[in-house]
Amino acid sequence: MTPVLFGLPAWLLTNNLLFGAGAALIGWWLPHLFLNLRYNARRTKLENQLADALTVMSAAISAGFGFLQAMRLAAEQMPSPISEELERVARLSSLGMPMDQALQQLAMRVQSYDYDITVTAMNIQLRRGGNLTRLLDTIAETIRQRIDLRGEIAAATAQARLSGWVLMLLPVVVAGIASVLNWEYMQRLFTTPRGQMILKLVVGWQLMGVLWIRQLLKLDI
Description:
This protein is mainly α. The chain has 2 domains: about 50-155, Up-down Bundle (Receptor-associated Protein), CATH 1.20.81; about 155-220, no CATH class. It contains 11 helices and no strands. Helix 6 runs antiparallel to helix 7 (about 130-155) and helix 8 (about 160-180) runs antiparallel to helix 11. The longest helix is centred in the first third of the chain and has 46 residues, at about 15-60. The protein starts with a helix and ends with a helix.
């Protein structure tokens, strides 16, 4: 539906099939972008809550709870969304699924490095035995250090990311102002072959610049 809402008006306004197709492509891409943003926001919440959940489980196991009971306790005490995920793991285990498989499904749903290493360490410890409390405390401390490091990197690169957004939005703002002040001049970009070629080059260079800046600022921690 969104490709039609974006593509049809663009085609009617510019009388150019290429621009209509480009607008339709943007209309198709925006919902995916929105879903990805929601997914990444939820994953970030889960990553930030993991260390506290492991601490709760460690304290419960030290108090004499079993692993499944400790997970249920963490699910009760922790906020959403990690409470929902822990409750789901505990419920699957209670219904007969092996705990290692239930934990592995958790890692597959979240798609996070922190959850991958946590689940792997838990499964190894549950199979071979050992000091599970110490393991959970160690993982929790490691995750907290990683979160602190990510925060420091985000603060250090904030100015560069802001510059990237400014460089990306400035041409759009200038083009919008110029269109309002002198539409007859700006419409040549959309109605003449030379203007369309220039517009394509500008959009292409702009996208390349944005991707380049994102790649420079992309750090895996």
